[in-house]
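Purpose: get a first structural picture of the assembly so the mutagenesis plan has something to point at.
Setup: two entries, given in the order below. No constraints added.
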Amino acid sequence: MAREYGRPESPHTAIPAESRNRGLPMIDVRNVHKSYRSGSRWVEALRGISCRIDRGRFAFIVGPSGSGKSSLLYLLGALDRPTTGEILVDGQSLTGMSEAQQNAYRREQIGFIFQAFNLISNLTVLQNVLVPFLPRGVTAAQRSRAAELLTSVGLADRLDHRPYQLSGGEQQRVAIARALVKSPRLILADEPTGELDSRTGDEIYTILRQLQESSGTTLVIVTHDRRFITPEDLVLEIQDGQLAGTAEADTIDYSATALTGR
Amino acid sequence: MGIFAWRNLLTRPIRTVLALIGLSIPVLGVLGLFTLSNSLRDLVGDTLGGIEGVIVLNDNAISPVLSHVPASLADDLRKIPDIHAVAPEVWGVAPPVEGQGMIAGMVKGKAMSILDQPVIAGQEIASHQGLHSAIFPKALRDHGEGRFLQPGDEGKSNIVISRKIAREYPGANGQPRKVGDSLKIGGKPFQIVGIYETGSMLLDVVIVMDIKTARQVLYRPEGSLSCIYVEGKDPARNDALIAGIEKSHPGFDARSMGEAQASFGTLMGQIDTFLLMTVSLALLVGVVGIVNTMLMSTTERFAEFGVLRTNGWSQGNILALVTLESAFLGILAGLVGCLLAWGGATVANHFLAGGGLQLGMTPSLWAIGIGLSLATGTLGGLYPAWRAARLVPMEAIRLGSH
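Result (structure tokens, whole complex):
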């Protein structure tokens, strides 16, 4: 199986060589609160989260169910707005973005991977990968890139298949290709192996790690499963909507570049 | 995006087909109404178009059959200098022909409508021979057989019938009546001397006979008249002729065929409005059906919309996608409605053959059907589309996952 995830250079996606060096903060979360109404009561999903994630990191957000992990992830992807606080990505405030800017940000800079794969059942594998480009029309170059990505995740012979014809692992590989097709700066994954067996989960993490090494893309992954965390990874532990701890996985003390909750 | 929207419709075929039926039936209703209305207008236009003269009836009589004018009126009209010919007539619903009245015919299982009921037209033969625009003699010459009434037929039981009547009241051998056969009207035998065919279902029910004979058949008193057909010397000046007659003879109504056509058009317009209001209710139900279908469809796909939003789709893109789906549904329903109307008209024409009433789907009716359905479908999809578009992406994914 070919495993090359090199990203093409484009004005908004190319990462300067120096930016691949760790230490330059890419994500800066500043005292973010998020509350929403659930039926007749208000739920405080996030209660004053502050943290930084450097460019090119492989970061995990861990914590028990309902702790606010996914809420934080979705806020990083501009899928929702914080109730208070601010989030900066590459110095750009997500909070102040207009609706159109948020759309462009998601379309061009962010790749999402979901636990339930969330492929569109009416579209073929290739068309699913091209979903970000459908409204504006798909170019031959984009189609070619999508096919290359699918080939690189071992689905070259599945381009015209529908999602229901694929196994869970294959569907998640399509979702990874969809996240990569726009050559994103940041990939956000919500329990990407939550519905896969451990062997398939290993395969998915192998792909994600090779991607991160080859392209320098920053990955932020929400997970319950700590088996996939390696000593080099950054781990953000969330409990009851607050940051319980931020650490390099191989240290006990909190990292100097990752701030504790403010 | 168009292919994506199309596939979304095909994914739920039963629901799509049900919504399609819900919208195509009202479209069929609208088209059926317009087709019938246009055909009736054409029929009346064709029927009356060849008549150049003016009919004088008593005021407010909607038809010669329901009119009575005094015989002295004919003499008065002959004194008007601009008049070329004055032809008195007696009209009435025929008594049972060959023992069959309309009600008796229906009881026997014979399909008859009020438009099939034979009507007697008694003509003053001598004065009718001076007419330029007499319809029945022309119809006999062009498409009929035998001869028309002549002065020698006065007071005799000679009649001219239509080919339709000849067909509907066949002889003992089951074959249509022909020239030389007899036909019993009100229990008395009449000799068929001619058969005409106008092609109009409104005229091809008329049995033409001498005016005196008609009075006997219809039990009308001697000298009574239903109406008087008048031809001016210059048909282009009919309006002035009508004004002159109505001014000098209050209580009588002179009508040109153009005026009759206009009155019929007004009547049809009023009927069209009433029926359109009725069909609008059906269209409203069709819109509600589309709204319901699209609401169900979008509610099931919250997660999908969330995923699309995470991939940079704007609210406008989601709105366009869902609206496009309902617009496709509308176009499909319009096509089905038009095809049903076309098929229905073709079948109906088979049964209406020879009656002059021809239903047809013109290009403009196709455009109206598809356009109306497209507008209805699009309108019905707007609310579900707006609802899907305004979902917060994160909320959409959460709702869709549950």
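The radius of gyration of chain A is 18 Å.
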